[in-house]
Amino acid sequence: MILVAKPVPKDRTADKHLTEKLLAEKEGIFLWCIEGLERLIANDFEFTISDQAKENLRRSERECNNIIPFMESEHDFKFDASGQIHSQELYWAYQSWCRLNSLDELSRRIFSGYLKSHADDYGITYSENAVNEQGKRARGFIGIRYTYRPPTIMY
Asked: Which of 23, 39, 51, 76 has CB 3.0 to 4.6 Å from 148, enough for a Cys bridge?
C-alpha cells in the first residue's frame, strides 16, 4: 500500500513546538492507535485500501514496469483470440517500443515471466507450442498476433 502525503502549503510555517504538543496528547494518540488495531482485528487483519491508495499503487507499478504501458500500446501486435505469437516476436516489439519511447528494456526473462504470470489480465495464454503466421512453432502466446511488417523496398 502506497500512501502519499499532501504537499506542504507555501505559506505554512513549521510548528517548532509540535513535539511537545504531541507528547502532551500521547495518551489520546495511544487510544486512537488501539481503536485502529481493534478495527483491524475485526476486519481479519486486512487493511481497507482506499481508491486513492489503489491508484498510487497502479501508478507506481506503471512507473517501475514499462511492460504494462507497452501491453496497453499494442505496438506491432494486436489482441486477437485466434492469433498466436512467438515470445521472441513479442519481445522484438517490446524492444522497438522501448527505443521509440527512450526507455530501458527489461530482460527477455523478466518480460516473458511477467506475461506468463499476468496472461489472464491480458486475455492471452502461454503455450510451449505457439504457431506464428509463417507456421513455425515455438514458445509464445495465444490470443495475440504480431502485426509488424517490414517496409517494402521498391527498385
From this structure: 76
